[in-house]
Amino acid sequence: MQTPDLSPDPSNPTPRSVAVLAGGIGGARFIRGLLHYLAVSEPGTEVTVIANTGDDIRLFGLQICPDLDSIMYTLGGGISEERGWGREGETFTIKDELAAYGAPPTWFGLGDRDTATHLVRTQMLSAGYPLSAVTEALCARWQPGVRLIPMSDDRVETHVVIDADEPGTKQAIHFQEWWIRHRAAVHAHEFVLIGAEDAKPAPGVIDAIRNADIVLLPPSNPVVSIGTILQIPGIREALRQTSAPVVGLSPIVGGAPVRGMADACLEAIGVATSAEAVARHYGARVASVPAGADGGGILDGWLVHDDTDSAAIANLTPLGITTRAVPLLMTDVDATAQMASAAMDLAREIMAART
Amino acid sequence: MQTPDLSPDPSNPTPRSVAVLAGGIGGARFIRGLLHYLAVSEPGTEVTVIANTGDDIRLFGLQICPDLDSIMYTLGGGISEERGWGREGETFTIKDELAAYGAPPTWFGLGDRDTATHLVRTQMLSAGYPLSAVTEALCARWQPGVRLIPMSDDRVETHVVIDADEPGTKQAIHFQEWWIRHRAAVHAHEFVLIGAEDAKPAPGVIDAIRNADIVLLPPSNPVVSIGTILQIPGIREALRQTSAPVVGLSPIVGGAPVRGMADACLEAIGVATSAEAVARHYGARVASVPAGADGGGILDGWLVHDDTDSAAIANLTPLGITTRAVPLLMTDVDATAQMASAAMDLAREIMAART
Questions:
Q1: Span B41-53, mean pLDDT?
Q2: Residue of A nearest to B102 (CA)
């Protein structure tokens, strides 16, 4: 086992650009650790974050982008550390008022501070600006320290197929309703990314992957966060073709998600809740190995939690996924920076092995 | 001088329906007093309020209807008594957040509670419901005790022509910008109700005036509240043709507006700031008297503040506007109920004189 520290290996080249595919809370926290590591050890490295927008939902006429906001607030110092989502010092006056009007739905935690973000976004979208330009405008306030890009400017939405009330029939509900209202406790038959076929990657997404020195997959949800990003036509291909090593971090530790309800999502797509199964699902990038997921694998390297998941090393490495075991609990920024350091080291190791 | 009390004259018929044309704060307070009077003395009387929507403005993507909301909140018990507008216990988190994003304008007092109302309204409008239906839906919560109808379902907006920066040129700004940002202190050349020509009265407006037993004009702004309502094609004609007596209450007491900045509005249209001049501007309904305003006069009766404005009685009555002087300061609900009582008495007196 490799014990990562915050100093890069001087024998390896220093990357100048890192691309990260990310979901919401877990992705945001990982990137915060990554930035902490880079600021100390590799200053000047540019980070581009390609964020999942499949969770986006229009409620009360507001276009809400939970993952973009989680990343923006977390990196900009505005996140509620306690909840992990939404704004610090948030109030819920509007939510209560909407309930008093009987305006559905009542299960969504619409914060007052958050609403201002949604208002600015919705107004700019209505004026014709693409989501990527809107996100850039919002980031002018938050200064997240990364270039934050939605995976697509096209509106796509993850819906979840569940049993309907009438026996033998099914219905689709928005991911947020399944996630928040039902707490992912209703059996999901399938996730459908509505609008995916016709969606294009947002400007800069493909270039960020192509031109990156390293691509990282944080311990985000492999199904409804990273998996959703991979459904935008062109993104998986870019990941398979980039010269940068692609290194992921397992969101599953000891057979359970570190946070969130990734197990329910994995179950729906028939993937076991284990660090090894998630890596197999992502698949190895090497062409000689059958694709672990539709369209070909994307991983060069994989980090699993040490002790609990070290057995994956021997199983995955022969498949072409160089696997290491390190502590993967994002207990604080320093611990997370150590994880980022380990991911960067593994990427450099993979690069060095190629030459 | 007639001293009103809260008991109706038993020799006069009890009206069953009252129509009120109203602006925001002043109109709302008058109607609250009217309802108080009716509940005590003439229970069962139905009140229809036709509200000005020329103040409406779309800000931050929200459709804001200040006068409808002032009436709804005042009659529904949700108004801030201290400010006179907006919600009791209001907070301004969103306003601060929008300012932090640099989203203009910053001069509008967008409250958090209020925003929920705007969100419900905007969402319903976007879904295709007319403003009158939206207002009815919002009133299902507030139970204002009146039928509240916007003057029109069509979007009309009062703009104010002011001097532009370049000498000799003019520009038009939204009424709210003139009223709130400039506090009506910038000289207004003209008020233009954009969209007025093509606007139709909302469903129920003309019938409410036609079928009313009494029509009341509260001490609302005669230019940008009542005057705006009169610009919707068909409303002035309905007022001139209804069999109900039309009785107004002067918003000017002793040469100054009781509240608000009606003097600046009157100055712009060349009308003196006096109780008598406002009545002459409204004009007498009797056909034999030349119209005081474009399209013909609308008043049968007029209440002025006693002592300060009693001289108007002798000047206006010969014109066909039966004028009485009573206390016209809405210091509390009881005082306002007395004003409403006096207006109802005057209406009955006018009805009785006809037969």
A1: 96
A2: A141
Q: Give the pLDDT confidence of A31-67 residue by residue, as tens digits.
A: 999 999 999 999 999 999 999 999 999 999 999 999 9
Residues of B in contact with A61 (CB under 8 A): 61, 119, 122-123, 126
- The pTM score is 0.91
Distance CA(A18)–CA(A46), nearest Å, equals 6
Terminal-to-terminal C-alpha distance of chain B: 23
Do B60 and A103 make contact, defined as CB atoms within 8 angstroms? no
Separation CA B271–CA B221 (nearest Å): 13
Q: Percentage helix, strand, coil, to 5, in chain A?
A: 40, 20, 45
Residues β-bridged to residue A49:
A20, A148
Find the radius of gyration of the CA atoms of chain A: 20
DSSP result, A287-334: TTSPPSSTT---BSEEEEETTTTTHHHHHHGGGT-EEEEE-----SHH
Distance, CA of B238 to CA of B232 (rounded, Å)? 11
* Min distance A139 CA to chain B CA atoms (Å): 9
Give residue B260's pLDDT.
Answer: 83
Element (H, E) at B149: strand B147-150
B126-143: b or e for each residue (b if 16 or more CB lie within 10 Å)?
eeebbbbebbebbbebbe
Q: Where are the beta strands (DSSP E) in chain A?
A: 17-22, 46-51, 57-59, 62-64, 147-150, 157-163, 170-174, 190-194, 214-217, 246-249, 252-253, 256-257, 301-305, 322-326
Token pair, residue A125, equals: 């979208």
Structure tokens given for B307: 């002592």
| Contact between chains at A102 and B126 (C-beta distance less than 8 A) | no
B-proximal residues of A, 69-108, CB under 8 Å:
91, 93-94, 97-98, 100-103
**Quick one: tokens of A153?**
């400017």
Look at domain B1-13+25-43+202-355 and name its CATH class: alpha beta
pLDDT digits (tens, 9 = 90+) for A151-207: 999 999 999 999 999 999 999 999 999 999 999 999 999 999 999 999 999 999 999
Residue B179: name the closest of B259, B78, B61, B234 by CA.
B259
> What was the pLDDT predicted at B6?
57
Superfamily per CATH, domain B55-150: CofD-like domain (1.10.8.240)
Contact A89, A113 (CB under 8 A): yes
For chain A, the structural domain boundaries read 17-153+198-354, 157-194
CB A265 within 8 A of CB A191: yes
Q: Which of B92, B119, B143 to mutate to test the interface with A (most CBs of A within 10 A)?
A: B119
Tell me the backbone φ, ψ of residue A329, rounded to 5 degrees: -100, 120
Q: Which class would CATH give A17-153+198-354? A: alpha beta
Q: Do A103 and B119 touch (CB under 8 A)?
A: yes
pLDDT digit string (tens) for A87-116? 999 999 999 999 999 998 999 999 999 999
pLDDT at residue B10, as a whole number: 53
Our CA-based measurement puts residue B74 at a distance from the nearest CA of chain A, in whole angstroms, of 17
